[in-house]
Design a protein that fits this description.
The chain is mainly alpha-helical. It has four helices and no strands. The protein has helices spanning about 5-25, 45-60, 65-90, 105-125. α1 packs across α2 and α2 (about 45-60) crosses α4 (about 105-125). The radius of gyration is 15 Å and the shape is globular. The two termini are about 20 Å apart.
Length: about 140
C-alpha cells in the first residue's frame, strides 16, 4: 500500500472513531452502525467515508476561501450522508439516524458536516498530498 493510501485509510479510520465520539456527545447516547449487526463497535462508517474524502480533497481545496471550503465540504458530506442513509434503508430496511424532514440529511446537519470537515481537513491536509505533476 502506498504511503498516500495509508494516510487516507488512517484518516478514514480516525474519522470513523471521532464521528462515533461526536455522535455520542451530540445526542447524549452512543450510536452504533447497522453495518456491524448487533456488535457495539465504536466506529461509524459514514464518518469514515467522509473523513477519507476530506483527506483526499483537503490539499486541493486548501487554497480556496474558508466559506467556499465550508460550502463545498457541506455539499459533499450531505451527499455522502444521504447515500449512506438510502443504502441503509435499502439493505437493512432502516437507518440509525434520520431528521425531521424524513431524510438522511438536512441543512443544519450539512452545515455541521461542513464545519467538522474544515476542522478535520486542517489536521490532514499536509498528511495527504497530491503529486504536483503527472509523470509519463
Amino acid at each position: 500500500m502506498s504511503d498516500r493510501t495509508q494516510k487516507v485509510v488512517g484518516a478514514a479510520l480516525l474519522a470513523g472513531v471521532l464521528g462515533w465520539v461526536v455522535e455520542a456527545v451530540w445526542t447524549g447516547a452512543p450510536r452504533f452502525s447497522l453495518v456491524f449487526g448487533d456488535r457495539k463497535i465504536p466506529f461509524l462508517p459514514v464518518y469514515a467515508v467522509g473523513g477519507g474524502l476530506v483527506a483526499i480533497l483537503a490539499p486541493a481545496l486548501a487554497p480556496f476561501p474558508l466559506l467556499l471550503r465550508l460550502g463545498g465540504y457541506a455539499g459533499i458530506m450531505a451527499v455522502v450522508e444521504q447515500v449512506a442513509w438510502k443504502l441503509s434503508h435499502a439493505t437493512a430496511g432502516k437507518a440509525t439516524w434520520g431528521y425531521s424532514n424524513g431524510e438522511g440529511t438536512d441543512v443544519p446537519h450539512a452545515s455541521a458536516w461542513g464545519l467538522m470537515s474544515v476542522a478535520f481537513a486542517a489536521g490532514v491536509k499536509d498528511a495527504v498530498s497530491f503529486p504536483t505533476r503527472m509523470s509519463a
